Amino acid sequence: MRIPDRFHIAADHEHARDAAERLFAVVKQQLIAVLPKTSEFLHIGATSVPGCLTKGDLDIVVRVEREDFQVTEAALAARYARNSGSVRTNEFAAFEDSACMPHLGIQLTVKGGEFDVFHRFAAALRADPALVRRYNELKRAYDGQPMDRYRAAKDAFVTNALRGGSAERGNERAE
């Protein structure tokens, strides 16, 4: 899929969240039937966080044991297009379905691996309203801006949040 040129916040966040929840339930049931029993399916991303602004897509992380990664990756590749704009390693692969409404992104990670952070960021947002407010400020600042600039700012924000950075400006904790 071609990456959108610009980042845009969805006009109706509740509608976007409801649509994402419905699609998550459907996709989860489909994947449970074909992936290893130890697979964990989590709705991540802004649509999974109450009060968080969203562009309206659905992001899912599929977490698997290391020994199940290759078979899971093959099963996902048979059903979905690879996300060509994403890194691919022996612990991480990304897939998408732009025909879904909303757009569907699936991140496959090895539990405990280098890229097994998506669920941690979503949990941090759910636990900290101040972090959500700051994340929403970032999203508002980049609404209508080039997608690559938004993604760079978002990556820095996520990295800081996962390192334990405070949600309040000017109050960052040192490692």
Automatic annotation (TrEMBL):
Source taxon at top rank: Bacteria
UniProt-listed Gene3D superfamilies: Beta Polymerase, domain 2
Entries under InterPro entries matching the protein: GrpB/CoaE, NT_sf
Protein name as annotated: GrpB family protein
Alphabetical list of SUPFAM superfamilies matching this protein: Nucleotidyltransferase
